[in-house]
Specification:
By secondary structure, the protein is mainly alpha-helical. About 80% of the residues lie in helices and about 0% in strands.
Length: about 525
């Protein structure tokens, strides 16, 4: 890696620290887990409120941006042309953010909540507990997480296209000062964000590995273990490297289109084949309750202030989104040229959030309906086989269960490949000196073959992330995934707050400058 085009500090600092952590986990796994657990507990103890309050602030900022004069601003200027059609834009946004998460958690998370309703005086495994579970799914998987992505990506899009800032997470500094950020400051911000994304990518890949391994275990005589999870990790890493190496239009665009259509097909089949009325009834009641409880839950007001439950679920989810968000902002912002701020919020926040609500309604409602009708059936699967097997237990209640399980394994594989694909693209651009110039000067040339330097960088990052995810899932399963999410979210939290403040300034003090 002696290529002069590489930003050496941004490449080597996060890579060295991350690899050091992985090596340490191999040499002394017990000591590593003990230190990681203590560090994770410290993050949760000190910054829990910061995660939840910041997430709520991002929702409010998106609402303000949509109704303010900033909403009329076109990204790239009045004459800018879109890079993507609205459908492709929507599909890429949906599948490169939380898609793998909804597959894993839509059926697993509500079973946890059904038997542990957040410290509230609710009897477990009752219709009331089921509504609590669904409301919690909506809180963790709809408007708030997509707002976490929308704020930084919208801010970056305006800075990059309208104010011509560098392709860096120091873009807000450049936008506010009118000149490039000091090299040391820009490198520090990009290093922090890259380290956060490495944790987030590894955590999400861990969830993907567990989902796919659970499906293979369900479909074959193979037992899920270190060898199987290692093979799954290697297959996913190889696939998302090859996809990322093919460029935006040949890789991510095609995969996201297929991925979204597979999501829709699976969702429609489950609704029709399952107990349709019960699913819709529970969903309607829960969504109404979600609207009523959104503010008190967002601000963790009583009675929604049970700290152990919040740290294990709400903070975990928000930290995971924040770990991904800074680097995702560069990718999502880059592909948004030619659309207005209001269109951006519609496509990046509103539509994906409603899609997620429908998905959670169908699959979360299906899981809860099964558990209420057959008490402890899914709970036993959770306790004995792990959360990765719950989805397949739910599918056993539907027609063509085996074929559905095969379909879910395929869609799980494709979902993570699509999400990681975009991240590799951004990491490659961020760690090279001329990545930003190429992207903006010739945005229509996205199908050009990647440079050898880009391919080498993508291969390195793909292998590192895959190895880290395999180690953590082997050592500590889903708890390791949660720790990676929390640790990655901490540095990202402060970067996102900077983006949020910048967006407000751009929409008020600097509105004329961004209206080009």
């Amino acid at each position: 890696m002696r290529d002069r085009s590489i930003r050496r500090t941004v490449f080597w600092a996060p890579l060295s620290l991350f690899v050091l952590l992985v090596i340490t986990s191999l040499i002394s796994p017990d000591a590593f887990l003990a230190v990681a657990t203590r560090l994770n507990d410290w993050v949760l103890e000190i910054f829990s409120n910061a995660f939840t309050f910041a997430a709520f602030a991002f929702v409010l900022t998106c609402l303000w941006a949509a109704v303010s004069p900033l909403g009329k601003v076109k990204i790239g200027g009045k004459n800018a042309t879109p890079l993507l059609s609205r459908w492709n834009w929507m599909a890429i946004t949906l599948t490169t953010t939380i898609a793998i998460g909804i597959l894993f958690w839509a059926t697993a998370e509500p079973i946890y909540h059904l038997y542990n309703p957040g410290g509230l005086p609710i009897e477990p495994n009752t219709p009331e507990a089921a509504r609590f579970s669904m409301v919690s799914l909506y809180m963790h998987w709809s408007f708030t997480p997509y707002a976490i992505y929308t704020v930084p990506s919208l801010t970056f899009a305006i800075c990059y296209y309208n104010l011509k800032t560098p392709f860096s997470l120091s873009a807000p500094i450049s936008a506010l000062t009118g000149r490039p950020a000091p090299k040391l400051g820009a490198d520090a911000i990009d290093c922090l964000a890259l380290l956060a994304l490495l944790f987030g990518l590894s955590a999400s890949l861990g969830a993907g590995i567990l989902t796919i391994s659970g499906g293979i275990d369900r479909l074959t005589s193979l037992v899920s273990g270190p060898v199987m999870t290692g093979c799954v990790a290697l297959a996913i890493v190889g696939a998302f490297f090859l996809s990322s190496a093919s460029g935006l239009h040949r890789g991510i665009r095609v995969l996201s289109d297929i991925n979204t259509k597979m999501f829709l097909l699976l969702m429609l089949f489950a609704l029709i084949a399952g107990p349709t009325w019960e699913i819709l009834s529970l969903g309607g009641q829960s969504f109404t309750q979600y609207i009523k409880e959104f503010v008190p839950r967002s601000l963790t007001l009583a009675p929604f202030d049970n700290e152990p439950w919040l740290k294990s679920w709400t903070v975990f989810n928000f930290a995971n989104w924040m770990a991904w968000a800074p680097l995702a902002a560069l990718f999502l912002g880059k592909i948004s040229r030619g659309y207005t701020v209001r269109e951006y919020i519609l496509v990046n926040l509103v539509l994906p959030a409603f899609f997620s609500i429908v998905w959670m309604t169908i699959f979360g409602g299906l899981a809860l309906n099964i558990e209420l009708g057959s008490p402890s059936f899914l709970k036993n699967i959770l306790d004995t086989l792990g959360p990765e097997r719950i989805l397949y237990g739910v599918l056993d209640y539907l027609p063509f269960a085996t074929a559905l399980a095969v379909f879910v394994v395929a869609i799980s594989f494709l979902s993570y490949v699509t999400a990681a694909d975009s991240s590799l693209d951004v990491i490659s651009n961020l760690t090279t000196k001329d990545g930003e110039a190429t992207d903006r000067a010739a945005p229509a040339d996205e199908t050009a073959k990647p440079r050898k330097t880009d391919l080498a960088l993508k291969l390195v990052w793909a292998l590192v992330v895959g190895f880290a995810a395999w180690i953590m899932t082997t050592l500590s399963g889903i708890e390791g995934v949660k720790m990676l999410s929390n640790l990655g979210g901490l540095p990202a939290l402060f970067i996102l707050i900077m983006f949020n403040i910048t967006l407000i300034i751009l929409g008020t003090v600097k509105l004329k400058e961004v209206t080009i």
